[in-house]
Amino acid sequence: MGRCGRSADAPPAAGLDCATHFLRNAASARRFWLERAKERDMSGLLALLDDVASIAKVAAASVDDVIGQAAKAGAKAAGAVIDDAAVTPKYVQGFDASREVPIVWRIAKGSIFNKLVLLLPAALLLSTFAPWLISPLLMLGGAYLCFEGAEKVAHLFGGPHETADVSGADPAHLEEQKVAGAIKTDFILSAEIMTIVLAALPPSGIAMKAASLAAAGVGITVLVYGGVAMIVKADDLGVFMSLRGRLAATRALGRGIVHGMPWFLKLLTIVGTAAMIWVGGAIVVHGLYELGFGWLHHHIHDIAVAAADAVGQARGAVEWATTAFFDGLLGLALGLALIPVANWILLPLWGLVARLRPGTSSGR
């Protein structure tokens, strides 16, 4: 018998049939193993895609959690945010219109640096190693908000106060001074904002806290300085509409914007001042409660509940408004009490420290 299972004396045609059968079997075997390999590759690819989809779902859920936590915590800092938006437009007053948006952009970049590079690591270290310091620092920031708001109220009722004459100053040098001052003010407000956000975050890992703080910081900065940019350019838009508008209604709207913007800025200042005093007072009252001195918090709560019971309708709104009123009243009283402390003690001490710094001349 031969290798193909035929006798040695079989005709040549039988040998040809045997070779053909062998080749067919080999081709079938090759197709079989190729299909098995493709199935393995396809199953591996499908498994990889399933893993990628699972990771994407987890990442999307994490992003949703980060954004949700950042939004909820950022809402707690509404008072400081409103004040930040109310304060910033004054830094572009007196400059050429072409420099307004670049100045706002420079302040916004400084604000991002303050929040993400300086304050975010400090907040994470604070929450990890000294969480007991959060309430006292919040109270310190709340007291500063009360002081700032009360100082504005004092200036409002104290008559006109002197302003520096900058008419002959170099515009570039003046811009540097204004931007530097704005970034310093933003650092204080950003510290208050980041501390409020940190205190409002639910318990979570350090990575989630960092992501939520970063998202809140960037979101608040975009909201504040994007709004400021629109506010400072609104009068230019109004002028354009009043001069180039095709419809009479468009031109009338443009004139209304031009005439209304000064009043809007004044309203924004009033709202920002009221928000500073209210939020600062609320932070101090809540901080005292957290430190074990809750009598003031309980008294305000009882008065608010009694007022809501007396009105009978819209109980939640009445209770909130009553609480905000007494928080603001306390904040105003605290701020007014801090004005002489700051002017007669803290500012002279700060001036003494500044004069003692190396490289500071005595005549400056």
TrEMBL record:
Show the GO cellular component annotation of the record.
plasma membrane
Q: Name one Pfam family in it.
A: DUF808
- Record flagged with keyword Transmembrane: yes
Q: Which UniProt keywords apply?
A: Membrane, Transmembrane, Transmembrane helix
Task: Tell me where the signal peptide lies.
Answer: none
Residue ranges spanning the membrane: these are: 116-134, 210-232, 263-289, 329-354
- InterPro entries, per the entry: YedI
**Protein's recorded name:** DUF808 domain-containing protein
